[in-house]
Specification:
The protein is built from eight helices and seven strands. It has helices at residues 7-37, 43-54, 62-74, 89-97, 111-123, 138-141, 162-172, 198-212, and strands spanning 79-83, 103-108, 131-135, 150-155, 173-182, 216-221, 227-232. Strand 4, helix 7 and strand 5 form a beta-alpha-beta unit. The chain is globular, with a radius of gyration of 17 Å. GO terms for molecular function: methyltransferase activity. Pfam families: Methyltransf_3. This is O-methyltransferase.
Length: 234
């Protein structure tokens, strides 16, 4: 993982990456497309994606969804918290990775989006008691959730609140639990040496914080728009 302590370091990282791109760019897009195509999506996922496109909302790529499903299954997760319900694409993948008795708690400020997700979950074959929908701003809802009660926390909300999500996740996760952040590449802007908006600067802070944390073991996965994952040390 690359650290981002300041503008000078960002420029250095960008130069290093430009040097590497000469060797890998020819196959990168083909490889990423192959990784996404490797994931078979059913009718429920396709329906949720279509609702997301109609609403002008981003949704996780198939490769990112498969990674989330794998992480949930690897953690033998029984309780997962999701920040950003959307129309249910990521939620379906997380539920697929959860134990049969596992529950997804998903938070979103837009209750109408959660209605789409409820339909998608039903279409995917999940009983109504497998998901708990909480409408509201994440930083208002998360403090009400139980300390150490979650195996995985997936963050796909406001990037400006990323560090706050991380702090809440450390409280919510059991030892050995996993926190994931979607979209940390920010369409390539995270390592772009040009002037960037506040949300990109906050992502750089997040990357640096995870990398330097003594409480976390992290990795940055090159799926979708970048999936930052970290395990909470015991």
């Amino acid at each position: 993982m690359c650290g981002f302590p300041g503008a000078a370091d960002t420029v250095t990282v960008a130069r290093q990456l430009r040097g590497q791109e000469r060797a890998i760019t020819a196959n990168r897009q083909t490889s990423w497309a192959f990784a996404d195509a490797f994931v078979a999506e059913d009718d429920a996922l396709r329906w949720a994606r279509e609702r997301s496109r109609e609403a002008g909302l981003p949704s996780v790529s198939p490769g990112t969804g498969a990674a989330l499903r794998l992480l949930a299954a690897t953690a033998d997760a029984k309780a997962v918290a999701e920040i950003g319900t959307g129309t249910g694409v990521s939620g379906i993948y997380l539920l697929q990775g959860l134990r049969p008795d596992g529950v997804l708690t998903t938070v979103d400020p837009e209750a109408d989006r959660q209605q789409f997700a409820k339909q998608a979950f039903r279409a995917a074959g999940f009983a109504g008691n497998r998901a708990r929908f909480i409408p509201g701003r994440a930083l208002d809802v998360l403090p009400r959730l139980a300390d150490g009660g979650y195996d995985l926390v997936f963050c796909d909300g406001d990037r400006l609140e990323s560090l706050d999500y991380l702090a809440e996740s450390l409280r919510l996760l059991r030892p050995g639990g996993i926190v994931c952040f979607e979209g940390v590449f920010a369409d390539g802007r995270t390592v772009d040496s040009g002037v960037q908006p506040a949300e990109v600067l906050r992502l750089r802070d997040l990357l640096r914080t995870v990398r330097e944390s003594q409480e976390l073991t992290g990795s940055l996965l090159p799926v979708g728009d970048g999936l930052l994952c970290a395990v909470k040390r015991g």
